[in-house]
Here is the input.
Amino acid sequence: MMFRTTRIRLGAAALAVAPLAAGAVTVSASPAAAVSMHGCAYPRVCLYDGSYQNGSIFSWYQDTTYQSIIGGGDRVDAVVNTRNDDSVWLIDRKASPDAYICIPRNTAVNLGNYAHPNGTTWANDADAIKIWGDPDNGKCSGTYQVQQGRVADGWRP
Here is the structure.
């Protein structure tokens, strides 16, 4: 009888510890790497024909350089920035002075939702892109909100 009682007590203790152990595994588990967003793989910045929800990617970038948008920049309707610590500028070089819209880290934006300084929206107005690498913190003017600004015509970082 003593053996059975001991066995039951050990069984109850084991059952009481099992949920705690399972909970610890669940709490400590977290994604080790960044994931894609709206079909755009990390660490890319993808440009879309149409909205990022329903459109298609026509170009993507991951180098931290100033570049002309390939494939017809004036067709950019949306952008997805999957980078964890870099912001990106879409630039309209036809505006004077050049206009930019800054997309913070891990952000998807439909450009038709943002007014352009020319009186329309940002949809179909960007023709260059700049991904800001180190020491960028992924913010736009100190915030994780989309921001706009102007730079001198012909500006290059």
